[in-house]
Design a protein that fits this description.
By secondary structure, the chain is of the alpha+beta class. It has one domain: 2-Layer Sandwich (Ribosomal Protein L30, Chain: A). It is built from 2 helices and 3 strands, in the order βαβαβ. The termini are close together.
């Protein structure tokens, strides 16, 4: 399974509460924080929902 490196590049201040909770569920706390996740349908859906806040990179 492929892995994704997800980085929070924009603040969640002023965003919809659901989007804030989605970012937190991904494990991102502060701007600049980075997490790695498996590319499961659940994770891809969350990334797609808040993609305007994230920088996503596929790992090999």
């Amino acid at each position: 399974m492929k892995k994704l490196r997800i980085k929070l590049v924009r603040s969640t201040i002023g965003r919809k509460p659901k989007h804030r909770r989605t970012v937190e569920a991904l494990g991102l706390r502060k701007v600049g924080s980075v997490v790695e996740h498996e590319a499961t349908p659940q994770i891809l859906g969350m990334v797609n929902k808040v993609s305007y806040l994230l920088d996503v990179e596929e790992l090999k």
